[in-house]
Please model this.
Amino acid sequence: MIEKTINKNSFDELVTIALSKPNICVVAVGPPGCTRVLFFRAMRANLLKRYYSFNISALDIITGDYQKKLKEFITEINKSNPEIEGIIIYTSCSEIITGMKFEKVINDIYQKHRLRVKIFNRGPLAKRKELPRKIIKEILSEFDEHL
Model:
C-alpha cells in the first residue's frame, strides 16, 4: 500500500484520466498554491484546453463566500465552450477544511445550463475509501451514463 501512495506518476495519471473525456472539463477550485500543480500536470499532458483554475483567496476561504463567483465562472466556461456537457469540480484541502457544500452550485448550473457537475475531493485531507484513480473513473462512468 505504501508503494501506491508514494508512486510519483499516479497524480499524472489521475490528471490525464480526469481530462480524457472530450466534452468534460475540470475546474480546479482552491488557492493558487494548490491548483498550480494540477495546471502544470495538465500542461505537461497537453490537456489545458479542458482545464480551468478557479483560484480563491484567503478571504474567500475564511468567508466561504465564493459560490456565486464560481457559478459565474462556470457560466463563462459554458459560453466560450458550448460543446462542454459536464464539469468535474476538483477541490483542494481548503474546501475540505471549510466544509464547503457545492450542492447549490451543482443544482443551479444544471438548471441554468443543463451541465452535469461532479465533485472530486483530492488532497491529503480528503476522506475516501477508494484510490483516487478509481473514484475519478467512477465519476467519468457516471457522466457516460447521463450524457
